[in-house]
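Thread: flavin mononucleotide complex, take 2
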Amino acid sequence: MSQNPEIVYQAPLQGFTDFTYRNVFQEVYGGVSKYFIPYLSYIRGKEIKKSLLKEIFPENNKALPVVPQVLFSNTTELFELVSILVDNGYKEINLNLGCPYPMATNRGRGAAWLDKPDDLNETLQQLFAKEFPTKFSVKMRAGMKNNQDFKPVLGILNKFPLSEIIFHPRTASQMYDGKANPSLFAEALSIASHPLVYNGDIFSEADFQELKTILPDQKSWMTGRGLLMDPSLALRLNGMEMDLKLRKQKLKEFHDRLFQEYSERLQGSGHFLMKMNQFWSYFCESFENPHKAIKLVKKSSNVLKYNAAVVEIFRDLFVNDDL
Ligand SMILES: Cc1cc2nc3c(=O)[nH]c(=O)nc-3n(C[C@H](O)[C@H](O)[C@H](O)COP(=O)(O)O)c2cc1C
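Output below.
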């Protein structure tokens, strides 16, 4: 391992990085300094989905350095969600200013805040006046539609004692199209008075090395889809040597532990198969022929067929190994 390690965070991905996933990830791989819990938010006025509450319960995150996140449209929602997290003992809470989905932004949540800096200023003033016993960090995009929106927003964020800002250099209207733009991040670095964490499109060691040439002094990173595709990525970004054989063994162990945990936790094979299908939608990228792997999984109409599909996928993977 390097003397001067890179700090790698696992991004929150609603529906993917749930507490089962986070715990198994930490047990089999690790290499992540903080796991961000997908956002807690209201639906239909004052309701919070049970599944979102389960994510933040301390008993589901016992051995994990986790940071919960709130998605909110006004101070009432913000204070109530923060209070729930404070009552559950959280000492850092992340504010979501980046969710690009119209379901959130049409209600004034997520990236919609990037379009209303004055409201954001007022909201943060009220938040910090409350003196909640917790730190706050921010996760944001470069803008709603305009990739220069972040400039006035950072000017406002500079006034508040945030612990750090995770910056994904895409606009919300881009969703995931095009590429994250590291030069916007470099501009943000020159404006922000808080530590910035780079987030976006780190899918491989090669992507990471390219970013390091553009941002040579940057030491903290967040990766989401990259870790879903290759869960050994965080360890390897920190210089851990993993030969192919070990990587393959780890993939099998990771899959099998998730299989076991989800099959114990989820009721009904339909629900379980849906979860494993979703997991494979990124995990298949760890295999030589991702298309074939995902096709085999998708075709599995019951757990027996799923098991046969997995045997076949891993048989292909191990075919040249003396395991
Ligand atoms: C399916 C999905 C769910 C996501 N859920 C959240 C979320 O709950 N909170 C959040 O801040 N970002 C969420 N994101 C955005 C990611 O955290 C991350 O910022 C984005 O994927 C870019 O990073 P990456 O290129 O490393 O994946 C989600 C992204 C995806 C694709």
